[in-house]
# Entry
Amino acid sequence: MDCREAIKLMDGYLDCELDPITSQTIEQHLRECGRCDQAYKTHGSLIRAIGNATPYFKAPAELRERIQSSLREETTEHPVRNGVPGAQVVFHKRQPEPRSILSEIPWNWLGLAAAIILAAIIAFNVVPRAQRPEADQFLATQLIASHARSLMANHLTDVASSDQHTVKPWLDAKLDFAPAVVDLSEKGFPLIGGRLDYLDNRPVAALI
Amino acid sequence: MVLPLKAEHASQTEDFESTAKIVKFAVVPKKHEEPDQSPKEELMSFEAAMLPHLDAAHNLARWLLRNEQDAQDVVQEAYLRAFRSFSGFHGTNGRAWLLTIVRNTSYTLLKKNRAVDFTTPFDEEIHATGHESVSPATILEHSEDAELIREAMDELPAEFREILALRHQEGLSYKEIADIAQIPLGTVMSRLARARDKLKEYLAARMSK
# Structure
């Protein structure tokens, strides 16, 4: 056994957790190697000292009472074993449920909205401009054409509402994707309604 | 008309018989498993088996959470959880079983409070300098200072606090520690060695201040 191995096994030996043969090999090495022997002695006394001096936190008497009364409550509430509900009684008191709902759901919504906006930006700006300059032109022509068509036919909106939450579900139901219905009234474009349109051979949402 | 009816009838009888057999088998072990223990008796046997380990449970939770109120809440919660699954416990080592539940409940709370200390690696830079001059003898001399040790231990990552408490205070074997901390047996020694080295470093760092 070399010094490296002896040092590696030091904690196991001092905790009496090694098999007898390995322990004997270590003892043999310690008799031959003064440095390892010294390291073992120092580490051993430190382990003992730490063990003795580490404060032990005994349970206060009121905790025992608290547990016993909560167990009694448990048996009267759920006479059948393995009752599933109420598993997190204690945590609920300290960290009520609404908090976790608040912290999780808005993030999902934000993530969803961000994903849709990002997808829209990529789909309508980056990809056509970078890769399909002609298609971009074609898209613009189509956009103008459908706008003109809607004005001519006096068919500006399919659903007339200034409420985002009315327009969005309506569009959702008609499309194979969920469009982001944004409120631009602050920028001087109050919402009038939504319309189903065709762009690039697929149905799209138009916000008016 | 008669023939199909007969066939139908026969198959029904067969099904009924086989169902009856299954029911019979299901009932017998059930009766055997639950010898009509009343909730009160069950509570008594649970308390007799688990309340003696209350100090161990509290001590572990207190070291893991570093906060008396959280520790008490976690221990109470752990006892309720233990009671609910007590019927499934057939082992002999009640203390290790309870401590596993206490440990898991503690980690749930640590994660909830976003205490990332058990994933944060030890800050080597802060503690690696300035204490080379502290000799093992000096560390040993101060290692009886309970307050100093408590402060140094509280600074360690949770996995180190846990393993030190289980080994030094409960005197558990490597096997028991492996079961409670849910790590391979071979990892116990190396983690314990690292935990002790870090504690030594922390103590030295505090002494050289």
Remarks:
- Confidence is low (pLDDT under 50) at residues 1-34, 119-131 of chain B.
- Residues 74 and 109 of chain B are 8 Å apart (CA to CA).
